[in-house]
Amino acid sequence: MKVTKEAIQATQQSVDHWERMIEWVSQQDPEWITDYHYMEVEIGESWYSEDCPLCEHFLPDPDAPCNDCPLRVVFGQCIDPLALNAWPNVRWSRTWGEWLEAAEVMLFQLKTTLKLLKEASDA
Q: Are 17 and 123 in contact (CB under 8 A)?
Protein backbone atom coordinates (compact mmCIF):
# COMPACT_ATOMS: atom_id res chain seq x y z
CA MET A 1 0.00 0.00 0.00
CA LYS A 2 1.35 3.40 -0.96
CA VAL A 3 1.42 5.54 2.15
CA THR A 4 1.20 9.20 1.25
CA LYS A 5 -0.01 12.29 3.01
CA GLU A 6 -2.79 12.48 0.41
CA ALA A 7 -3.89 8.88 1.10
CA ILE A 8 -4.09 9.57 4.83
CA GLN A 9 -5.98 12.81 4.24
CA ALA A 10 -8.49 11.26 1.80
CA THR A 11 -9.08 8.34 4.18
CA GLN A 12 -9.68 10.72 7.10
CA GLN A 13 -12.09 12.71 4.94
CA SER A 14 -13.90 9.47 4.11
CA VAL A 15 -14.20 8.64 7.81
CA ASP A 16 -15.68 12.09 8.40
CA HIS A 17 -18.04 11.64 5.43
CA TRP A 18 -19.37 8.31 6.76
CA GLU A 19 -19.72 9.70 10.28
CA ARG A 20 -21.89 12.55 8.95
CA MET A 21 -24.06 10.14 6.95
CA ILE A 22 -24.43 7.76 9.90
CA GLU A 23 -25.39 10.63 12.19
CA TRP A 24 -28.12 11.72 9.75
CA VAL A 25 -29.43 8.19 9.13
CA SER A 26 -29.59 7.48 12.86
CA GLN A 27 -32.32 10.14 13.00
CA GLN A 28 -34.41 8.45 10.27
CA ASP A 29 -37.08 5.82 10.79
CA PRO A 30 -35.20 2.48 10.51
CA GLU A 31 -38.16 0.93 8.66
CA TRP A 32 -38.16 3.52 5.88
CA ILE A 33 -36.79 2.61 2.45
CA THR A 34 -33.30 3.95 1.74
CA ASP A 35 -33.08 6.81 -0.74
CA TYR A 36 -29.73 8.34 -1.62
CA HIS A 37 -31.42 11.26 -3.41
CA TYR A 38 -33.25 12.14 -0.20
CA MET A 39 -29.98 12.00 1.74
CA GLU A 40 -28.26 14.15 -0.85
CA VAL A 41 -31.00 16.78 -0.68
CA GLU A 42 -30.97 16.76 3.12
CA ILE A 43 -27.22 16.72 3.86
CA GLY A 44 -25.54 17.29 0.50
CA GLU A 45 -23.83 13.91 0.21
CA SER A 46 -24.56 10.22 -0.30
CA TRP A 47 -22.79 6.87 -0.23
CA TYR A 48 -21.94 6.82 -3.94
CA SER A 49 -18.55 7.49 -5.55
CA GLU A 50 -19.27 11.08 -6.56
CA ASP A 51 -19.29 12.00 -2.84
CA CYS A 52 -16.45 9.75 -1.69
CA PRO A 53 -13.13 11.50 -0.91
CA LEU A 54 -11.21 8.29 -1.64
CA CYS A 55 -12.89 7.94 -5.03
CA GLU A 56 -12.20 11.60 -5.80
CA HIS A 57 -8.50 10.99 -5.20
CA PHE A 58 -8.01 7.41 -6.46
CA LEU A 59 -10.69 7.08 -9.13
CA PRO A 60 -10.19 10.05 -11.46
CA ASP A 61 -11.67 8.04 -14.35
CA PRO A 62 -14.80 5.98 -13.53
CA ASP A 63 -13.79 3.41 -16.15
CA ALA A 64 -10.35 2.85 -14.61
CA PRO A 65 -9.66 0.62 -11.60
CA CYS A 66 -8.98 2.27 -8.24
CA ASN A 67 -5.83 0.21 -7.68
CA ASP A 68 -4.09 2.58 -5.25
CA CYS A 69 -7.13 3.21 -3.05
CA PRO A 70 -6.10 2.25 0.50
CA LEU A 71 -9.55 0.83 1.27
CA ARG A 72 -9.30 -1.42 -1.79
CA VAL A 73 -5.83 -2.59 -0.78
CA VAL A 74 -7.04 -3.62 2.69
CA PHE A 75 -10.64 -4.78 2.10
CA GLY A 76 -11.03 -5.17 -1.66
CA GLN A 77 -12.78 -3.10 -4.28
CA CYS A 78 -16.09 -1.48 -3.30
CA ILE A 79 -17.94 -2.92 -6.27
CA ASP A 80 -16.64 -6.47 -5.85
CA PRO A 81 -19.35 -8.57 -4.17
CA LEU A 82 -16.76 -11.19 -3.22
CA ALA A 83 -14.47 -8.72 -1.43
CA LEU A 84 -14.54 -8.09 2.30
CA ASN A 85 -15.43 -4.47 1.57
CA ALA A 86 -18.70 -3.49 3.30
CA TRP A 87 -19.84 -1.03 0.62
CA PRO A 88 -22.02 -3.52 -1.33
CA ASN A 89 -23.96 -4.19 1.88
CA VAL A 90 -24.58 -0.46 2.21
CA ARG A 91 -25.49 -0.21 -1.46
CA TRP A 92 -28.07 -3.00 -1.32
CA SER A 93 -29.65 -2.07 2.02
CA ARG A 94 -33.41 -1.88 1.71
CA THR A 95 -34.19 0.12 4.86
CA TRP A 96 -32.39 2.80 6.83
CA GLY A 97 -31.99 0.26 9.64
CA GLU A 98 -30.13 -2.16 7.35
CA TRP A 99 -28.16 0.76 5.90
CA LEU A 100 -27.07 1.87 9.37
CA GLU A 101 -25.80 -1.60 10.30
CA ALA A 102 -23.82 -1.90 7.07
CA ALA A 103 -22.51 1.66 7.32
CA GLU A 104 -21.16 1.00 10.82
CA VAL A 105 -19.09 -1.85 9.34
CA MET A 106 -17.97 0.44 6.50
CA LEU A 107 -16.89 3.06 9.02
CA PHE A 108 -14.97 0.42 10.98
CA GLN A 109 -13.18 -0.62 7.78
CA LEU A 110 -12.27 2.99 6.98
CA LYS A 111 -10.97 3.60 10.51
CA THR A 112 -8.95 0.38 10.32
CA THR A 113 -7.47 1.48 6.98
CA LEU A 114 -6.64 4.90 8.42
CA LYS A 115 -4.94 3.30 11.43
CA LEU A 116 -2.85 1.06 9.15
CA LEU A 117 -1.85 4.04 7.01
CA LYS A 118 -0.78 6.07 10.04
CA GLU A 119 1.17 3.14 11.50
CA ALA A 120 2.94 2.57 8.19
CA SER A 121 3.80 6.26 7.87
CA ASP A 122 5.41 6.21 11.32
CA ALA A 123 7.57 3.17 10.46
A: no
What pLDDT digit, counting tens, does each position of 100-116 carry?
999 999 999 999 999 99
Beta-carbon contacts of residue 117 (< 8 Å; ≥ 6 apart):
1, 3, 7, 8, 11, 70
Which domain covers residue 90, as residue numbers? 5-122
Number of domains in the chain: 1
Greatest Cα-to-Cα distance within the chain, rounded to the nearest angstrom: 46
pTM as predicted: 0.93
Residue 69: phi and psi, rounded to 5, are -65, 125
